Amino acid sequence: MSRKTDRNLSRSLGGGDSLRRLRKAVQQVLKPSDDKITEMLEQITSIQATKDAALTGDEDTRLLAVCRLGEWGKDAFESLDIALNDESPYVRIVAAGMLAYTRRLDAIPILEIYSSDNTESVRETVSYALGWLHKYGEEAPDSPYIPVSRENPT
Questions:
Q1: Do 96 and 125 contact (CB within 8 A), yes or no?
Q2: 54, 62 in Cβ contact below 8 A?
Q3: Proportion of the chain above pLDDT 90, given as a percent
Q4: Of 100, 48, 105, whose CA–CA distance to 73 is shortest?
Q5: Half-sphere exposure of 4 (CA within 13 A, CB side)
Q6: 14 in any annotated domain
Q7: Most buried of 48, 60, 65, 74, CB within 10 angstroms?
Q8: Averaged pLDDT, 105-134
């Protein structure tokens, strides 16, 4: 991933520390380095492959694919909605952030359903995504802007 993508993803997840810890865990599983993660993401070249990877496979693959779905924008909306039901709270957190990243106001009723998720970090991410969509959803900029978290959730 590029540095810019890392920063934007970090912001959408609520802070750099969370993403650094998540990335470190993924790197330990995938060893030896960032290159493996980059290679995996680059191999997912079509939206259908990205959707498939987001809904199947191991947790790390699903997590990376959900991150990639954000790059597909509106076309990935349905898959991001489905990813909010994933067993992994990390996948659900990223899916909520990526739904906000699509800037679609029709994500609001879907995200509201998950505002009572069993996992606190998922609830916090959903709450932040809802607030951002209420504030910026209609007037979303054309740039790939992801909201900056108000505080580090860790």
A1: yes
A2: yes
A3: 29
A4: 100
A5: 4
A6: yes
A7: 65
A8: 93
Element of type H or E holding 59: helix 59-72
Return mean pLDDT, the chain: 76
C-alpha to C-alpha distance for 50 and 70, rounded to whole angstroms: 10
Pair of tokens at residue 117: 């998720």
Say whether pTM exceeds 0.70: no
Backbone angles phi, psi at 67, to 5 degrees: -60, -45
Taking only the tens place, the pLDDT of each residue in 13-26 is 555 565 566 666 66
For residue 139, count other CB atoms closer than 10 A to its CB: 7
What is the total count of domains within the chain?
Answer: 1
| Residue whose tokens read 């890392």 | 6
Q: Which domain holds residue 50?
A: 3-136
| Structural domain includes residue 144 | no
141 domain residue, yes or no: no
pLDDT of residue 150: 44
The greatest distance separating any two alpha carbons of the chain, rounded to the nearest whole angstrom, comes to: 42
